[in-house]
Specification:
Blueprint lengths: L28 E5 L1 E6 L11 H7 L2 H17 L2 E6 L8 H10 L7 E4 L4 E3 L21 E3 L1 H14 L5 E4 L1 E2 L8 E2 L3 H13 L4 E5 L2 H10 L3 E4 L5 H9 L3 E3 L2 H11 L10 H15 L20 H8 L4 H15 L17 E5 L12 E6 L2 E4 L2
Parallel strand pairs: 2-3, 3-4, 5-6, 7-10, 10-11, 11-12
Antiparallel strand pairs: 1-13, 8-9, 13-14, 14-15
Helix pairs in contact: 4-5, 5-6, 8-9, 10-11
């Protein structure tokens, strides 16, 4: 390494390190590129600690920022050197400040790509309005808008305040019985994506229904998140349009634990089975699949669980490792900076006990973490 970049890779005998270079010995460990989680919520914590509504409505902003600082540290120490944070969930634009604090070395944490408030359709997200008094003006977990002018204004505001990505909810549980249905029209989504791309920002779409996924894909989004009810035809359409998929399988397991009395190792719930079926359809259709866990729904510092679910769903361990490194880097448009151990890329390195190409669970046994040439964890 030279500074924060990788200078050379290869056997020690073939290298020409300076005489005063520091040597770091990692005997018996497997060296990996820094891991990436492309779907995170750094301002959330598990819902069995505090329900989502209560986090948004009752936790003071300063308290949530302190939590986020701790979450960032815990994430980095477990080998995840880059996160894409997909919405502050009621914490405004504080992800921009958190990113700045990490970049300036004030606090330890992963490299952040942020999306600030995220964009939702009017009265289609939360908290409320269903279930609350109609005269209450409730804080919202994202920025609610309607119509093309509202969509354009939200994209421009979030871009202007520092968003790296624009996050949109293409569907949500606003149906008559609380079921997920599309939220934005095709015209609104088209305008949102066009404006985001015009500003140089890619778009991530929360979409769980086939129609929400279809509309988002046709609008030209860059990634679709969750996709739990995706069909064969929708994943085929995503592959044709080169839309990447972040399956967030660990989040579905967490929901089952919190709300359906699921215990790990027991028979999967219907929701977990549906999410896994969608993942297998995406795999079959050749969709680009990255590692995005929705961490924050479950405990920060345990994103490695998502790689284990990718393997359970049919990926080889090496495929799952690529999903969390070079594939995610490509999805983020950062393949010339991170995701591989090659000269000229950032010196993001992780060492684990065991061989994760044989047993993917080895990614949880982190012994060494370096980000941009700085050691944060040593054996």
């Amino acid at each position: 390494m030279h500074g924060d970049w990788i200078a050379a890779v290869g056997p020690a005998a073939a290298g020409r390190a300076p005489a005063d270079a520091e040597t770091i010995n990692l005997p018996g460990l497997t060296l990996l590129p820094g891991l990436i989680d492309a779907h995170a919520h750094i301002f959330l914590h598990p819902y069995n600690e505090t329900l989502w509504n209560d986090q948004v409505l009752k936790e003071p902003l300063g308290y949530r920022v302190v939590e986020a600082v701790l979450h960032a540290r815990n994430t980095l120490m477990q080998g995840f050197t880059t996160l894409r944070d997909l919405g502050t969930e009621g914490a405004g634009f504080e992800d921009v400040s958190l990113k700045r604090a990490i970049n300036e070395g004030l606090i330890p944490g992963p490299r952040l790509e942020v999306s600030t408030r995220a964009i939702v359709a009017t009265s289609s997200y939360g908290p409320g309005p269903r279930g609350f008094r109609p005269d209450l003006d409730l804080p919202q977990g994202a920025q609610p808008v309607s119509g093309v002018p509202g969509v354009l204004a939200a994209v421009r505001e979030q871009a202007g305040r520092g968003a790296d990505w624009i996050k949109v909810y293409a569907d949500y549980g606003r149906g008559p019985r609380g079921e997920a249905v599309p939220t934005f029209s095709q015209e609104e989504l088209n305008a949102l994506v066009a404006e985001a791309h015009s500003s140089g920002r890619p778009v991530a779409a929360h979409a769980t229904t086939p129609e929400g996924m279809r509309r988002a894909t046709l609008a030209g989004v860059n990634t679709i998140e969750h996709g739990f009810d995706g069909t064969d035809s929708v994943f085929r359409l995503m592959a044709e349009h080169k839309v990447a998929y972040l399956p967030t399988l660990t989040a579905e397991e967490a929901y089952a634990e919190y709300f359906d009395h699921y215990t790990r190792g027991s028979a999967p719930t219907a929701g977990m089975q549906q999410a896994m079926q969608a993942f297998k359809l995406a795999l079959k259709n050749g969709v680009t699949i990255g590692c995005g866990s929705d961490v924050g729904v479950f405990t920060h510092g345990t994103s490695a669980r998502e790689l284990e679910w990718l393997v359970r769903g049919g990926m080889r361990p090496a495929q799952a490792l690529l999903a969390a490194t070079s594939v995610d880097a490509r999805i983020l448009g950062m393949e010339s900076e991170i995701g591989r151990i090659v000269p000229g890329l950032k010196a993001d390195l992780v060492a684990v006990t065991g061989d994760p190409t044989q047993d993917i669970a080895a990614v949880e046994k982190v012994r060494f973490v370096m980000k941009s040439g700085v050691i944060y964890r040593a054996p």
